[in-house]
Each structure stands twice: as structure tokens, then as C-alpha cells.
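Below is how a single chain appears once it has passed through the pipeline. First comes the sequence as given, then the structure the pipeline wrote out for it. We keep one example in the README because the format questions we get most often are answered faster by looking than by reading.
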Amino acid sequence: MSLCIDVQSEVGKGTDFVILLPTIDRKLQSVKSNETVIKKGKEQILYINDEPALGDIGKKYLENLGYHVTTVTDPLNALEIFRKDANQFDLVISTYSGGR
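Resulting structure:
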């Protein structure tokens, strides 16, 4: 299977992305059962979620992984922040439901 990206967009409702990644046929190295290996990030993320509690959870989770996170609940405010300096962010994550 090759990489597949499907984009569905509807005015007033938003855009959905479905990304299918190919599997690899090689065996992964085993990790001891009492050992967890997590690579830490260092990038800057703009995280948009219209539910403040979920935004806080996402921010804490991402910061525990080493990322620097700016959390925004209002998509228009997020757009303003992004437009001021888009280069400050390495990734934008939006889980804004738009009232759906």
C-alpha cells in the first residue's frame, strides 16, 4: 500500500483529512517489558481546541513529550496568532469542532 491522503471540505462545516500510511515488513526491535522508549520533541505547536478542558489536557500531554505548546480556543484568534508569525510554529493541530 502506498501513502494515501483524502481531503473532504465543505463550506461552513470544515475540512477533514484522512491519511493512510504504508506498513513496513521488517520486524521491530523488541524493548524490555519494563522499559518505555519515547523520543522527546522540541518543536513549537499551535494547538486549537474549542473545549478549554480538552485544550489543557492536550497541552499538558504534548508538553510532557517535550513540545512547546500555544493553546487557543477561538479559531479566529488562532488565525490571527498564526498570521502574525507563521514561522514560529512547526505544527498546527486543530480539533475545533465548530459546534458539531
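The domain at 38-100 is CATH 3.40.50.2300 (Rossmann fold).

See the next section for the split statistics.
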